[in-house]
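Sample pair:
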Amino acid sequence: MSLKIMEFLSFMVAFVVLRLSLSRTTLASLATIRPSEFMRDNTTLVSTEGLFELGFFSPGSSKNHYLGIWYKNISVQTVVWVANRCEPISDSSGSLTIDDTGNLVLYGQNKRVVWSTNSTKQAREPLVQLLDNGNLVLRDEKDENTENYLWESFDYLTDTNLPGSKFGWDLRRGLERRLSAWKSWDDPCDGDLTYGIELDEQHHTYPQLIIRKGSAKFCRVGSWNGVSFSGHPNARRADSLFDYGFVYNDDEVYYVYDLKGKSVISKLVKNEKSVISRVVMNQTRSVLQLLVWIESKKIWETNSSVPKDECDVYGICGANSVCVTTNNPVCQCLKRFKPHNQENWKEMSWSEGCVRNNPLSCHDKEKDGFIRFSNLKVPDTEYTWVNKSMDLEECRVKCLSNCSCMAYTNLDIREKGSGCVLWFGDLFDIREFQLGGQDLYIRMSASEIVNHEKVRTDRKVKVERALIITAIIVGLVGGMFLVGFYIRRRRYSYDKTQDEDLELPLFDMHTISTATNNFSENNKLGEGGFGPVYKGSLEEGQEIAVKRLSMCSGQGVDEFKNEIKLIAKLQHRNLVKIFGYCIHREDKLLIYEYMPNKSLDYFIFDERQSRLILWPKRFEIICGIAKGILYLHHDSRLRIIHRDLKASNVLLDEAMIPKISDFGLARTFGGDQIEGNTNKVVGTYGYMAPEYAFNGLFSIKSDVFSFGILMIEIVSGKKGRGFYDENSSLNLIGLAWTLMKEGNAFKLVDKCLLEDPYNNMEEALRCIHIGLLCVQQNSIDRPNMSSVILMLSGERVLPQPKPPAYFADTDLWKGDHSLSCNTCITDVEPR
């Protein structure tokens, strides 16, 4: 017995020693690395305050080993720098040390040199440290200047830029600091998406930030104008967490960003003790993101990203044109220019751009002049000339003296402006902003200048006449004031009685009119079945969308109040937020949060725009819409049937998060009621469930039917209504069903998704299957939204669908259906 006890005790002692040994090996960390010291696969180098850690890691499912830097205390391992990006070590034999030449060297199998700093500077006592800003540095311990680095990782960026790191050029050393995305989520080797400051030092061109895909320009952030980069004029808004700086001299051209002070951050970010941020290139999404770590949520949240809309895509409108996101279509020729090919332009093929209405006089320079264009992102600066000392008038004279000079502006727009930039040849990649941007002076022929001055003179005369007429009218109005005041008071009393139960802020018409520039056509986002929608900006800078109900729309006072009451009670990240409303005489207006990326149909049904939303984002959008509908059907205080779910009623915010909008046709149920009947059928052909379209029966299952159509549209990139397959004579639903039965459902997937190496085909096919379950002929065969979400997550086995509704019809609404109820159909244009 005693022998067994002794054996047991010996075993336990050995076990404890082994555990302690393993723990020490696993957790061992270094503060510095000196010559003859090795950092191996089971050790790390930690920064002074423990913010960052250098060590060996294996990304994703890869078994390769890499040397990298990551945040030590963030639960989601986030690598910010990799030494041997394209030279992985296949086992755990890696070691890091300082060699006899004073360089930091990474060894792999059989002491093979995998990576080295290759510094030409020699140190008496070389020392390697990881700083708390994430910078890995090699320095001389004997050097009193602790910031005199022999080598630093901040000079050799990978896919990430950290606060305080210089991004750009050291012209003395010929060193370029630029970003290149990881090839994939488990391969840190360089992808084809790169980001850097581009300039031609020899020809004195204006430096600009450009994202490239391969060798092609993909997105141009623009040039620094003293305030911000011209492509992102709102980057330095008051509620920004960051400060930006730009250095442009004979030795260096770089920009740097950093966090604002703790006192500012505490006001802007609630419940966060500190803020951690990074700028990263994302190959999968083809985007540059500024991310902020939200500790309370344990997620990286997007603060901003580019490209953020189609006007950020390089040269989308061709030469001598301007992109305006609030217009439809977004591309238009600059004033006094016309499309190079009118027919192609009408077909929204803009690549050929625009040409002048009248040619320049050129050599007779006195016949040429300039017209000012405001609020612009200035053109591509590849062919420019810069002078930092000229003023604007000297700049104009300089441009006018050169036949090839097409435009000029100030280098620095602060205060009165300073410096000079000249453009030569065609002007590419211009966009117009509602707020911000800068002036650009474009060269014009004498005839165009005369016409421009004539317009300005006519406008001045009209203003003077208007003032005289106004003075006369004021006298007449004075006599009518008392009568008007009496009528106004009575009407205000009536409106107040009507509005007192709407539970939302009431805006006055003057505020909304000012915000939308008097409902200007330039502010118009689109027009739906119930009237136009305008973009606006309140005095405090809040961007809004204003839906102005048309007098002849089907939505009257009842529907208007219905939408207000419903949305005021709804709180969900996938439902559009309403700020208030306005009732002024016959005008009825709803004020929503502004969605910068318009509506879903704008992207998925356009061959060019659809490439901006690849599968991971499309699946996020599908899941987001599903969660929004689930909230309406089951989780809100009232059970709500939307009755008009469609692609144009799904809006996208800056981060492309979907928001369900337009609740004017929605109906509420109380208690356990799940269906109802109406004598007035409302909605959109192509999305209506059959029992609703023909008999007026609506339920949560009629919304499920609409969601099924929408899901198949998102996967296929094809419209459910109006689609006709010439080979099979089937509509979209019928084609989806047939291809699935044949085992060829992948043929329905949008072509641009099939070309994407990161497309999850299994997920896409699952969505087609779920979509067919949602569009079953009988409502009882359709799943509810809670089941749909479980199916999307892969947590439920999918049943086989029966033949769907409208399976045999190539045209859903062809012929006379003899509807037994009144109809109200809301066909809309994209916002």
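Residues 501-594 form a domain with the Phosphorylase Kinase; domain 1 fold (CATH 3.30.200.20).
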